[in-house]
Specification:
The chain has 384 residues and is α/β, with parallel strands linked by helices. It contains 12 helices and 14 strands. The strands form 3 sheets. Strands 1-2-3-5-10-11-12-14 form an 8-stranded parallel barrel, surrounded by 6 helices. Strand 2, helix 3 and strand 3 form a beta-alpha-beta unit. The longest helix has 20 residues. The C terminus is likely disordered.
C-alpha cells in the first residue's frame, strides 16, 4: 500500500526561456550568484514539505554544471543543514556518485550525518553518467566494466564500514589498511569511527537498464524507478521481484521499490499538459542525449535503442505512457490506486520537480497534492 510521498529535486535553478525552442541546453551558462539559487530553492521547498507531511526530499549530486540543471555537489552536507531547519522531513541522497568518492570518506560523512540529524539522512548510491564529472574527479565511466567493478568494490567497503567493528579489505582498487607499520606494529585491520547509529542502514539506488538489479537484491539495496513509461516500469518491477526470489528473498511486487513520476495538477489534463510542457521539454533537451528517456515503443523497446524512436519526446507521449501525473486530483488519485492494485508491495511515491520550474510554482503543486490527493492514502493505525 502507498504510504509515503516524497519529492525528487535534481537541483535545477529557475531557468528562463525554457522549452523545446528555448535556449539550447549547452548554451546555458550562469554566474555563481545564480548557481547558488539551487540551495535556497531546496530550503524553501523543504520547509513546505515538512509542514505538509511529506516523507523525504531527495537531492542529486552533480558537479561543474554551469548550465544550471543540477547544481548541488554534496548531498550529505546539504541534507544535514536542511535537517537543522526542519522537524521531521528526511533528506535522501539520489544519489552519491560513488566513483567520485573514496568509500571510507563517504561512509564517514554519512555516519556523522546520521548521528547529527538523528537518522534523517537516507543513503543512496550510484555509478554516475556524466563523463565531465566522473572522469574529471578520478573515476572511470567510459570504461563501463571498470566503472561497474569499482562500484561493486566500493559497496563492499561501504558495507564493511557500516556493519563491522574491525575489518580489512584487499581488492582491485583498494587495500585497507595500507600495508605499513603503525606505532611499532603491523596494521591488520581498521575501524571506521564513528559508524552509523541507526542500523541497518537503508541504501537506495536508481534503476535504469535493470543490469544492476541482481547486485541490488543480493545486498538488500532498494530501488528508485522514476519517469519510466508503464511498460518499462512493469518490466523493472517484475525483474526486481524475480531476481530477489533467486537469492531466497520473497518480495511482493513493488516491495523495496519507489515509483516516481512528474506532477502537474490542473482542472483538466489538457490544461496540465499546456502548463508543464515547457518544463517537460527542457528536461529532455538536457537528459535525452544521456539516454534518459525511459519510454518504450509499441514493441517494448526503450526510447533511443535500435529501432525505437529517438530525440526529445512530447509531453503527450509521456502522459500516454503514464510517466506523468497530470490533470485533476481525482484522476491522479485513480492512477495511484491503479499502482496500488498492480504493485501491492509499493509504499513509496516520488514526485519529480520538473526541471526549470520555479520554486513558487512547485510549492503550489505540492500544496494542492497534499490537500487533494494525499488524504486518500492516509492509513489509520490499528487500534487507534
Amino acid at each position: 500500500m502507498i504510504k509515503k510521498f516524497s519529492v525528487l529535486y535534481v537541483g535545477h535553478i529557475e531557468l528562463e526561456n525554457v522549452g523545446r525552442d528555448g535556449t539550447p541546453a549547452d548554451e546555458r551558462c550562469y554566474p555563481n550568484e545564480r548557481l547558488v539559487e539551487g540551495m535556497a530553492m531546496a530550503e524553501s521547498v523543504a520547509h513546505v514539505m515538512d509542514e505538509l507531511g511529506y516523507d523525504t526530499l531527495w537531492l542529486a549530486e552533480h558537479h561543474f554544471q554551469r548550465e544550471g540543471y543540477e547544481v548541488i555537489p554534496n548531498l550529505i552536507l546539504m541534507g544535514t543543514y536542511l535537517a537543522t531547519q526542519t522537524r521531521r522531513l528526511k533528506f535522501g541522497c539520489a544519489f552519491n556518485v560513488t566513483p567520485m568518492w573514496h568509500p571510507v570518506r563517504l561512509a564517514e560523512d554519512y555516519a556523522m550525518a546520521d548521528y547529527l540529524t538523528r537518522g534523517r539522512i537516507v543513503m543512496g548510491v550510484g555509478r554516475g553518467y556524466h563523463t565531465r564529472e566522473v572522469e574529471s574527479l578520478g573515476g572511470p565511466l567510459l570504461d563501463s566494466e571498470a566503472n561497474a567493478a569499482l562500484f561493486r568494490e566500493q559497496m563492499d567497503v561501504l558495507f564493511k564500514c557500516f556493519l563491522e567493528e574491525r575489518w580489512s579489505h584487499k581488492g582491485r582498487f583498494y587495500t585497507i589498511p595500507a600495508d605499513v607499520p603503525y606505532r611499532g606494529y603491523q596494521l591488520k585491520d581498521v575501524t571506521m569511527v564513528p559508524r552509523p547509529v541507526h542500523q541497518p542502514v537503508e541504501v537506495w539506488q536508481a534503476i535504469a537498464s535493470g543490469k544492476s538489479i541482481p547486485f541490488m537484491v543480493q545486498h538488500g539495496i532498494k530501488g528508485m524507478v522514476t519517469m519510466n513509461g508503464e511498460v518499462i516500469t512493469r518490466q523493472v518491477f517484475n525483474q526486481f521481484r524475480d531476481e530477489a526470489a533467486k537469492v531466497g528473498r520473497t518480495l511482493q511486487l513493488g516491495e523495496d521499490l519507489a515509483w516516481g513520476a512528474g506532477l502537474y495538477l490542473s482542472p483538466t489534463v489538457e490544461q496540465g499538459i499546456d502548463g508543464v510542457r515547457p518544463y517537460h521539454d527542457e528536461r529532455y533537451k538536457w537528459f535525452a542525449p544521456f539516454g534518459f528517456v525511459r519510454y518504450a515503443d509499441d514493441q517494448g523497446r526503450p526510447w533511443g535503442t535500435p529501432g525505437a524512436p529517438t530525440g526529445v519526446p512530447t509531453i503527450e507521449e509521456g502522459v500516454r505512457q503514464k510517466a506523468w501525473l497530470i490533470g485533476p486530483a481525482s484522476l491522479v488519485t485513480d492512477r495511484l490506486r491503479e499502482l496500488e492494485s498492480e504493485y501491492p508491495g509499493l509504499e513509496h511515491i516520488v514526485l519529480h520537480w520538473p526541471e526549470g520550474m520555479p520554486a513558487d510554482e512547485w510549492i503550489s503543486q505540492l500544496r494542492a497534492f497534499a490537500r487533494d490527493v494525499m488524504p486518500a492514502f492516509a492509513r489509520q493505525e490499528v487500534g487507534v
